[in-house]
Amino acid sequence: MKQFPEKFMWGAAASAPQTEGASYKDGKSPSTWDKWYEMCPEKFDNQMGPQLTSNVYEHYREDINLMKAMYLNSYRTSIAWTRLLPDGKTLNPKAVAYYRDYFQTLRKNGIEPIINLFHFDMPWWLMEQGGWENRYSVDAFAFYAKTAFEQFGDLVNYWTTFNEPIVHIECGYLFQYHYPAVIDFKRAIQVGYHTLMAHTKAVEAFRKTHQTGKIGIILNLSPAYAKSNNPEDLKAKENADLLNSKSFLDPVVHGSIPEKLIHLLDKHDLLPVTQPEDRALIKENTVDFLGLNYYQPKRVQATTSTSKQAKMPKDLYGYYDWPQKKMNPYRGWEIYPEALFDVALMIRNEYRNIPWFVSENGMGVAQEERFADEFGIIQDDYRIEFITEHLEALHRGIQAGSNCFGYHLWTFIDCWSWLNGYRNRYGFYRVDLDNDLRRIPKKSSFWMRDVITKNSL
Predict the structure, then answer these.
(1) Which pLDDT score, from 0 to 100, does residue 211 have?
(2) Active site residue: 164, 170, 238, 334, which one?
(3) What are the Cα distances from residue 98, in Å, to 29, 61, 110, 204, 402?
(4) Domain parsing of the chain, residue ranges
């Protein structure tokens, strides 16, 4: 038996834009996703946009009953900025009533809400002003955060500012998977810097409003793995870690941007525009805990680029296709549970063993209906195997002294996934899109309930 710590947080993760639906209902204004779908529905799998998703806006009480039956003791989701403050300034009373009832219902059923503020859903009114490229976004986000703390601080003990900030930076400004879908490394760096400062100012607002809870951030994290110990490959690993991990980890935990990252950006004329007071703000507003999302490792090797000035990350490190990899063919991601142990030790050794939890981990599979039994229950043994292997690696990390306090699967109920729609399913429960969004348990939900009951593998 592999026993987990007492009061370990077993749960699941989701986001407002991927689950709520009701895109324009009860005063909500559009996000970039709502508008991008209106402009280019052909970009979305099966032309399925965010207007419906799994309609948690109307189904949340039913879903919470299912969570309780599974013995989940925590759940992470987000607030839609566009719902709470439709124009960025005016509080929406219907949104306040919805979220308060949502969070109260979670608490009444023994489920601790962990609430995130931004999950890739930039308000359209702010996008029209430049989005994260505009320094105004920093103060706009801080005001939104302060409003959320004031309205829900009595119900929420665990807050996070951003989910995977690297993703909206890369996907929006390097790889064209998020709006505005441009390719510009320097703009991407500026977006990243303003995101960091928005996080910092939100933490400052949290402290100034004298909240009784804790505040953190959710980062998608994997230490880079070099192809070899050759100096060129190790340099690629250093660059990858600086850009993808340390760029946020160091300032939010240690209170400073790594000097090596500053030198790297300066060398390639990528330094962002800053303000004199920023360094002090970063130093003074570190987090209480971390959420770490882990799906796949990052394998790198020396870049083959001959460019003296980096135009893309591939000019600073190359991608390495490890021949021994085990793959999830549906998502195209490598399955490597060992990295979760490595992350645990990295946090213990390099980041003052700050409290952290696995805020996302999961396996997306297409056409899961192939694996349904005669009762319609998906026999997702592949997901059970995936979770088991990752929990075993995590358990070793905890045994080694890493201060991990929870594990959340992505996700509880199959959710809409950006441009991919419902192509891949991740949930403990299946959502039947053809039958009134009926929730159907998968085999993994029964298995996980047993793990939670025993608090062990």
Answers:
(1) 93
(2) 164
(3) 15, 11, 19, 26, 37
(4) 9-454
